[in-house]
Amino acid sequence: MERQGGIRDEWIVGGHRFSSRILMGTGKFKDEETMVGAVLASGTQIVTVALRRVGRIPGEDDMLGPLLQLGGITLMPNTSGARTASEAIRAARLGRELSGSPFVKVEIHPNPHHLMPDPIETFEAARVLAAEGFVVMPYMPADPVLAKRLEDVGCASLMPLGSAIGSGRGLATAEMLRLILRDARIPVIVDAGLRSPSEAAAALEMGCDAVLVNSAVAASGDPVAMAAAFAQAVEAGRNARRAGLMPRGGGTALATSPLTAFLSAEGA
Amino acid sequence: MTPRMPAWLDPSPGLDGSGSTPADVERALGCDAPGPRELAALLSPAAHPFMEVMAQRARALTQRHFGRTISMYAPLYLANYCMSGCAYCGFASDRVQPRRRLEPPEVEMELASLKEMGFEEVLLLTGERTSQAGFGYLLECVSMAARRFHAVGIEAFPMTTREYALLADAGCSGVTLYQETYDPLQYDRLHRWGPKKDYLDRLDAPARAMEAGMRTVGMGVLLGLSDPVFDAVCLLRHAGHLQRIHWKSGIALSFPRLQPQAGNFTAPFPVDEALLARMMFAVRIVLPEVPLLLSTRERPEFRDGMAGLGVCKMSAGSRTTVGGYGGAEPKTEGQFRVGDERSVPDICAMLRHRGLKPVFKNWDSVFRDTEAGRNG
């Protein structure tokens, strides 16, 4: 067991404690009411907002307004749209100014079509922003070596992708995620690619600390109901992880001619 | 001399099965990585009975990649001077009509009006390069727009890489340039005189814009000028070619369509609404991640129906005259007839009614890399 029963099951990122293990994205919703409804239904405590959707002056189209009114939510501006480290760094500083939050999701995808994170620029931006005191949460390829490099420069968590953003292909990177999890000293959050609550449960069962979802909720038939379903799945996955899964079956049946039969001959 | 098509653009490999059968269409719909051949099948007459299936697929893909949102933008026509003789264009040099450009104070007022209407993205348009509305003028207008708007794009004439880089430095992040038609013969016939007669210079311009660091290049053909299947397959090949080389820039596709009878010009290959819709579904299926735009050329009912079915970006409240948003009186005719004259609030209400969120701000000027002096 990772923690004793009776103790609150919390996880810590950058010195901040959270009990909800689902993080929510806020794009792609049909209106603010649905977005806020989904955020509330998920029970999330960390919400990410694309800086490019945040208004800078009153009267501009604004994503931040409705979220600032919700209690108990930590805002995590993201730098989506940045192609380079310097763009992401500027966006992060502006995001901190506008949201008042030290959290930043470093998201650098130079290719606007598949939106795959750039490992080189992400590393550089993370290094600079961590040194400036940000709680840096990098969206990253599921690369175990990059994970350690990001940890070494002071990131607060790792956010490897399960599969491409918005693809709904689930945990296509599961084998790499296992290697990241095995060696990580900071929380690991699967970000991007999830489609169904069962995949979120699988991520938690695997040992991930949390998941971040957006498209899977916003593009579902009923976003508020789907957010609640994800919350249940994440809780179930986490509880399963804590309970300890039984060992996999197969390969344990006894052979009729055991390979170790020779050992019983000792001393006979 | 008629220009030759470069090998990378040649659509014939995609068109060799021009007599597509329903089985080809089904294969195209079941294909993991559809390309030019599949696009041709989906645009063939055999695909017409699959219209509803294609619409469903297009909506699902659009929702997955762009969510339940529609990005909003507004065009601002800066000038209608032109020295080209494009047979189909309302601004062609042989059309007798008042010519003018917006002077800088008028540009400021028009931009202020658009900002008041809620826009955060503006597309600045001119005709071909002229002494009245040349590069310097456009650069000045881009700088003015960049002071007010998070996203500024241009739709003007082909430029040099250096000119595109200067525009990018001034805050322009998108260049729209339609090839009009990829058929070199038809292109030569329709572009009767003027700088636009240079097919290859125009063809190469999107690559120059990307080279200069533009984030998005808008592409398209003017439907009605030539065989739409030929043009659509070329467009896909052109887009693919650019994506392989300039992988840090995005493309966006528009589907401007000539009305069967536009002014004195009769579209030689008229495209009806059903084919236009099927083309947008097909392109969405083949390119799930690429923004597809729909302007106010089309009538309201068509725009309402297509919102979210492939389309993820729309203009609204548009004027195609030089001036007309309130800051400067329109004294010219429009480049084309606006089919959807509804106001911005009306379009927004329609989108919301259809379960779609109009998004005005989807970019931020913070991404302009002024320190590096370049956008990328």
What descriptive keywords fit this protein?
heterodimer, A: 268 residues, alpha/beta, TIM Barrel, five-stranded parallel sheet, three-stranded parallel sheet, 10 strands, B: 376 residues, eight-stranded parallel β-barrel, 13 helices, disordered C terminus
CATH topology of chain A: TIM Barrel
| N to C succession of SSEs of chain B | HHHHEHEHEHEHHEHEEEHEHEHE
Adjacency order of strands in the biggest sheet of chain A = 5-4-3-10-9
Distance between the termini of chain B: 38 Å
Structural class of the secondary elements of chain B? Answer: alpha/beta
Q: Work out the helicity level of chain B.
A: 25-40%
Biggest sheet of chain B: strands, sense, closure?
8 strands, parallel, barrel
The level-1 CATH class of chain B: Alpha Beta
Total E-strand runs of chain B = 11
Instruction: Return residue spans of chain B where pLDDT drops below 50 for at least 5 consecutive residues.
Output: 371-376
CATH architecture of chain A: Alpha-Beta Barrel
The best one-word shape of chain A is globular
Number of E strands of chain A = 10
- Rounded average pLDDT of chain B: 91
Distance between the termini of chain A: 43 Å
